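Issue: ligand-bound run for threonylcarbamoyladenylate - logging full I/O for the record.

Environment: standard queue, default settings, no custom constraints.

Inputs:
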Amino acid sequence: MEFISNCTVGTISNAAQSLKDGHLVAFPTETVYGLGADATNENAVSRIYSVKGRPVGHPLIVHISSINKLDKWAKDIPNYAIKLAREFWPGPMTLILQRTDLAEDFITGGQNNVGLRVPTHPVALALLKKFEDLGGQGVAAPSANRFGAVSPTTADAVNEELGSFFDHDDMVLDGGPCQIGLESTIINCTGIAPLVLRPGAVTKEMISVVTGNLMEDAEKVLTVRAPGMLKNHYSPKATVVINEKPKSGDGFIALSEVGTPINVIRLASPKNSEEFAQKLYSALREGDNKNLERIVVFPPAGIGLDLAINDRLDKASARK
Ligand code: TXA
Ligand code: MG
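Outputs:
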């Protein structure tokens, strides 16, 4: 594997060519790092599954460089989805739409819909544009972690997770720490109104303002295949405990206004919810690197981004 610490026009072009040649390229996005492959190349996509250790049949998000490429991959797009795309792309939002024939079963897990996203990180956008210049259609990319583990928010974390599973010709692009730090909001746009399947930085409130529609609750709509709903998604090795009194030797993550109890190992002191989201995964990872048995987290308990933070923590803290 080649680790590119200096992303330039030249190295990004090489990475785009590498994708075109069927290799894997891990790249930064504003949410988390993605493990990319040519979304029309079945062999390349199958390597995503082996490198991640992910069971086959899980659908993948296809990343494109702009809303203009949307109708290559999706059809019968409802008006509210166009509004969302115009408002929040490029950005931390994935839309689930009716697929075209370009989105084959090995991308969609055999479903008739496909997840699409235009990321805003400059390295991701440059990579996608270059890949499309070379004749590529889109880049399939799940988070660049082993199945069930915490998503990486730095290139070093990608290396820690997947370094030993990469092939010689795969690449990792280092674009610095991710700004948002939690995976994109996933919105099912195949029904009459948008439905949030995974909360993220594009919040229900923001979606309601743009579309004028009230959301239903994804957890209640059992007919929809909902992402990341397996227990122990987003889990570090340490046991994650929410809002309990920390014990001696525990790791501890809380807002900076909360003091550190005695004999507890402070892993992060974010100032606000945005910083909490941004630092959460690297703090959990640091707890694992310190071989801690337990990490106690006091999450912020408001609306908006706090719902995404609590969603991931609920899964991380599910009993193993
Ligand atoms: O922020 C993100 O979305 C990151 C970056 C790299 O873009 N990607 C990401 O991908 O989080 P992944 O595969 O780790 O999580 C996507 C989730 C998975 O649980 C997958 O099953 C679900 O979204 N998903 C993808 N396509 C879907 C579809 N067509 N219908 C329902 N769920 C889908
Ligand atoms: Mg993931």
